[in-house]
User: Which sequence fits this backbone?
């Protein structure tokens, strides 16, 4: 299920907003389906600022790590060399973590590709670069359902159960009335995908043993493969 970055980047360029679904959820229609995202006010201004802060922290941590070794008055005695190595490792890990976070982005989107039959979860940064997180095929989905969170102020979750082990992943969070609209649309899209036909079974032959009294054995019954026909898989019932 390879998905190119160029195809995913078409969400903002070619998509058009079909309207706010409430609770900060916005739907963008595209040429290949539609995209669902949480709108936190404007073009994700708050998340863009967090990404800028993360990038600044990453640069500062790298600068501090380099300063431990490159400053003119740096001390390289045996008493402090172990402390400097530990500080360098800690600052390096902090710089890598915040730098990776800023590059990946903080804006999570759910893309429903009705052409390829996929549900994609992606991360988008402030430069509109997309990084793929999860890809679930329509044929892998067992059910789509709403789940009320036990934690206060956590709203309702739109979850998908997929795979042979029945793993559950949360697509969106929000108000129940609005998520129910998305639940209906997603169920309609899943039912419209036709299941592949199962190849017909081979002809069945019944073999009988010869009679002891010399009676000739009955003629073998042949069943042609064309008589069996093609059996289609029944679509899975979604909740």
Assistant:
């Amino acid at each position: 299920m390879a998905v190119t970055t160029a195809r995913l980047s078409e969400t903002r360029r070619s998509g058009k907003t079909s309207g706010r679904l409430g609770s900060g959820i916005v739907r963008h229609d595209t040429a290949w389906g539609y995209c669902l995202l949480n709108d936190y006010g404007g073009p994700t201004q708050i998340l863009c600022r967090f990404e800028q802060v993360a990038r600044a922290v990453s640069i500062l941590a790298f600068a501090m790590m380099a300063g431990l070794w490159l400053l003119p008055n740096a001390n390289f005695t045996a008493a402090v060399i172990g402390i400097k190595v530990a500080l360098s490792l800690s600052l390096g890990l902090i710089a890598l973590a915040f730098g990776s976070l800023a590059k990946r982005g903080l804006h999570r989107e759910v893309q429903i590709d009705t052409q390829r039959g996929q549900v994609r979860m992606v991360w988008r940064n402030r430069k509109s670069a997309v990084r793929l997180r999860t890809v679930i095929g329509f044929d892998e989905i067992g059910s789509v359902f709403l789940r009320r969170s036990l934690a206060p102020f956590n709203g309702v979750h739109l979850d998908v159960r997929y795979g042979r082990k029945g793993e559950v992943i949360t697509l969106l969070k929000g108000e129940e009335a609005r998520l129910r609209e998305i639940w209906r649309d997603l169920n309609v899209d899943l039912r419209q995908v036709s299941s592949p036909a199962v190849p017909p079974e081979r002809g069945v032959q019944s073999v009988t043993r010869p009679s002891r009294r010399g009676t000739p054995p009955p003629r073998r019954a042949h069943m042609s493969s064309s008589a069996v026909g093609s059996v289609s898989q029944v679509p899975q019932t979604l909740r």
